[in-house]
Amino acid sequence: MKILVPLNIPDIGVEMLKSEGLEVTKWTKDRPMTKAELYEAASNHDGLLSTNNYKFDAEFLNANKHLKIISQYAAGYDNIDLEEAKKIGILIANAPNSMTDATADMAFTLMLAVSRKILFMHKTIAKGEWQHFRPQAHLGIELKNKTVGVFGLGRIGLEFARRCKGAYNMNVIYCNRSLNQEAEELLQAKKVSFQELLEQSDVVSAHCALTDDTKHKFNEDAFRSMKATSIFVNTARGQVHHEKDLIAALQKNYIWGAGLDVTDPEPMKKDNPLLAMENVAVTPHIGSATIEARNKMSVFAARNIIALHKGEPIPYLVS
Q1: pLDDT at position 14, please?
Q2: Where in the chain is the domain with CATH 3.40.50.720?
Q3: Catalytic residue positions?
């Protein structure tokens, strides 16, 4: 099998593929391939070990019906037309749970950064505005014993909630399609409706997949339902929140602050109003950006392709 790796990922997974006798073409430039480059390269490969940077829609899949597998260097796969892939017969796999701790850490970091206005205050130093003690300027809020609401209590949401409970004794509530028995036993978490989550939480953190049901779930109505003292955190997907509605909610004080590792669109434009707001922290989709997580993502994605090559069950098969 010939495998195309169209982004410069850690070599650990690439070396695994090579050690199994697969021929690997790895893109090493510090940018994604253009559409033309991707189409040309994919045309003479049997599989892709790829990322969310690329949109594998019906057009791409039908132009590359020869592909046997697309293994995502990610947990998410909303960039792939699963129905079309299934119809053509291209297997889709991913790398789940490889970045659980890293992303939970990022959500927790953003919550803290917003609560104490860390990024904004850092910028005041860079602008030469740190001059003297001001007892009532730029005050943050404390999180101890507050209520955190987790929207989508999967593995990442659970790890985030564990951090909140352990560090600040936060009361954990969650909105999920199903009961999370582990969370209820470990953290005394309580399952609530979406409306109850909005109304009761001091921090709302999104950890859901992007689907038709969750797209723009956090819109004007949702932000109006939240506490005026609350913080919204999103490390899931940018389209889970409606960005214009979020900007308006912050400007109109419907909510107190926001921490985002994902935006809509990505990359965020440098003149986005969120970047100038005191109670906002934005990072450039780096939730999985640790050495450990990125290596695991490479390994897990490679395992899927190796299993196919050996005729074994694919460990992280999506479709």
Answers
A1: 98
A2: 2-98+291-310, 100-282
A3: 237, 266, 285
